[in-house]
Amino acid sequence: MHLVNSPYGSAGLAAQITHVGKDIKTQNFLEALDKGPFVGGMIDCISYYEIMGEDFSRKDVTLNPELWLLKMCVGAIVPKSMIGKRIL
Asked: Total structural domains in the chain?
């Protein structure tokens, strides 16, 4: 609630979480965080390459290693809709 009342609003915090490994429980937890109503807009969770490739293909975007690394670097500060469509 403090962020909403700050001069920056909820955009005052951005965090990136990258999933290392292929543990399904971790994947489910990070997906819930990424889509959560409270923190989902402030964080970006990156899965391992194969899962991200599946997510991107559903959006008609081909994931390559460069795009995956770019998403890891700027995913938390660039709106999710821009990754893969407007940046590259």
From this structure: 1
